[in-house]
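Much of our argument rests on the idea that a fold can be written as discrete symbols. Part of our work consisted of pairing the sequence of a single chain with a tokenised description of its backbone. No coordinates are needed to read the tokens, only the vocabulary itself. The record that follows shows the chain in one-letter code together with its fold in token form.
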Amino acid sequence: MRILSLMAILTLAAAQAMAGRQEPLPADLEGVGITEHLDGQLPLDAPFLDSEGKNVRLGDYFDGENPVILNLGYYSCPMLCGLVLNSLLDGMKGLKWTPGENFRVVTLSIDPSESTALARLKKKTVIEDFGRPEAADGWCFLTGMEENIRRVTDAAGFNFRWNDDRKEFAHAAGIMICTPDGRMSRYLYGVEYSPRDLRLALVEAADGKIGTTVDKILMYCFHYDSSKGRYAPAARRIMSAGGALAVLVLGGALFIFWRQEAKRKAAA
């Protein structure tokens, strides 16, 4: 017991020392990250090229009715962008919804040197992997000039920088959920986006105008954990909902009992 106690004390002390120690970020990562601009407005007038080389504006994908998933990265990224995109794809495979029905997806390259041909190839690969050809109408892959890319990334709080030594962009992992009118609603972080988190974020961004009654109940029972960038169960809400359900069930049972009792007395 003494040995175990000593080990526990040493472990706790080491954990506290590690928690109190703050290593400076490498110079290559200074200024890189995501700053949440909740309710911030995207520049819907920003011009881009779609994967077919057609001139479009960002606002073309915001119809005022359906929310939009904004995916920022670049098509030739050697690692992180592919992980984010593949995770988003896996999460959407778990949804009954398909891009173009209840929501849209905008994937925008942060590299102004990338071509529409590369965007078209990436879209072809992703849609084939998705297995739902109809998603092609609701998922766009854009390229554009640096000044217009920066307008979008600055509005979204997506901070990145070019690493000249490695010849690649340094950026964080995450996606943004936008309202139908182009405002920032939620940020989901990391390289894992569960179907539940995507669905709840989309329902929330659409202000409950999409989804079923069950989705709205789930929205009530889950709250957004900003520290983790995902949705977590809200114990108080779940208890409240459970209590309300119990009252309804008990009330219904008592009503049936009283009604049957009244009929019995009337017959007697």
